[in-house]
């Protein structure tokens, strides 16, 4: 028996039931020697009329008596009800009293099986547990993060809304609005204008509609009244096209995406529909009505049958798609499976009774409909179409979905084209598939529509949430210094590691350039050349002094001190090579200590030379004591004494806080400075202070002895060299502290070279001039002549 509403879409369900019954009756292995029959009843609108018609059928009388039946010939085993859950619920209330098996072929509704309200009811459709996940997968595929939701305000609304919110929140999708549509046919007018303004005023271009055609009639009126185009509609099931056509909605729903239960094709079903005609099924009044309406047949209202003048070879396949769809619907597929479930249950029950009565008294086989329940509950079969049918709702699996695209251009085409699938049980990454090139979008869209609250934040920017708005509504802020984002819509920028820096667009971390005073740099080459040149020049001067070691100018002012000073200057000029090249720990330790030690030796030698000059001219006046001091060469003790003090400072420095290899990734953008950290800045400045003290002492002694009479008195040159030395290092300090990297190193190297060159130039160049260019001045005769002339001048005075 089939109880359905009266419209053309539902008529396909009747044909599906008839096709299944014909297959079963022709199958010798299923219900042998038994033929299935059926009855079809319309269900009028309204709970009262629905129950009234059901009581007529149950009692077999127009004046029905509850709990009694007068239809002795009726042998119905089960009732198939649908399409909406409301009809099944109303019928189930009464059928449950009779414990009559009821199979629903509409969408699965958990309420019908919960709390034991309808123990005699079985749902054929699979559960829609994963539907929300499928819808969210579609949103993610097209990057639709700002969508609206229209949902029927019924008992399922809360659970559906909760599932959608949970799945959307996980994936960062926001609801622009949620509208609960009243399902009562007379109540929609009060809120229609409010809903219409909500939809039209929303920036969301994608709207999800959850419900069936009957429960969303108010929405139909809203869309019709507002003529809402340029929206992408996502539906949870195929709506009744014929109903929508009444409200002129077909054009507006062109391009709609529909989640429909996946099912296999039923072999020969299409051929069966094409062959259906009033002549083949003369008792089917629906076929007679269709032929009369669409094929210009003469119709006898008295007998509800066509008479003649019909179009030859007329077929249901000739009807427009918006009138009758040749593709099997979800409901028809469920009817097909329901008939097979009942047939298999009857087969098992009959087989069980035959065995029982064979061993019993051998009475005729009789059964009551309620006896079918144990077999229906345990039904698990594979239908001829290959579908696994389970009626026990606790054992049902999640539905699989086909994603359909509704084509209705030109108007009346009404095609549902499969463009994708969603299989929740598939492997991760293979659940969702879509052929977006096959999709025809809604009127007004020439490319894939966008539905976002805020434009995407491109690489180099991050999302900044707007207070009081949804998480999908945000501003885009550029990443902070040395931070990047290389994807769109990033919540937080990523900081580049110390060895990298952000490029100008802030979408990539570039490796920082390592900076140090390298030999390959032009500055490094220049300083290296200067270092080697000065050291070579000093070696040449030393050679000149050694070659002319017996001349008066070389012997004057302590010959050995001149040799020590020249050798020290050679090493002073080579010392900058420790500062050039890639720094390492050993070089860092040697740099400052070697520099300090060599300059100390040089300055202490200059100090010794100035003391020698002073003592040489004071020896006669002071008598024997000074003469003894000159003889003992106490001035030569100054060098080791001063050097020991410098060594002591270096030892303290190295034991407390020695220099070490360091890097600075922040001073210069895009660069990592490799440098030698002084360790203890106090120790470093102590070294410079000690050198300054020696230079100042040497300058003082030289300045005091500058006017002493002597042919080769070098006190003036010593004073000038110390003045140059102090000027160089006093200038060095502020520049040194204001720079970093190779410039700072270059400044220190230049200061070493400049101060050493000052000593070399001012002390030894004049002597080399006399030795090489004025040898006549470097003779004893010249010295004696100059001495005699001085005496004469003295006597004349």
From TrEMBL:
It holds the Pfam family 7tm_3. PROSITE patterns: G_PROTEIN_RECEP_F3_4. The chain crosses the membrane at residues 526-548, 560-580, 595-617, 638-656, 682-705, 717-737, 743-765. It is found in: Cell membrane. Residues 523-787 form the G-protein coupled receptors family 3 profile domain. It comes from the Eukaryota. The keyword GTP-binding does not apply. Keywords: Cell membrane, G-protein coupled receptor, Glycoprotein, Membrane, Receptor, Signal, Transducer, Transmembrane, Transmembrane helix. It is a multi-pass membrane protein. Its main location: membrane. InterPro entries: ANF_lig-bd_rcpt, Furin_repeat, GPCR_3, GPCR_3_9-Cys_dom, GPCR_3_9-Cys_sf, GPCR_3_C, GPCR_3_Ca_sens_rcpt-rel, GPCR_3_vmron_rcpt_2. This is Vomeronasal type-2 receptor 116-like isoform X2. It comes from Mesocricetus auratus.
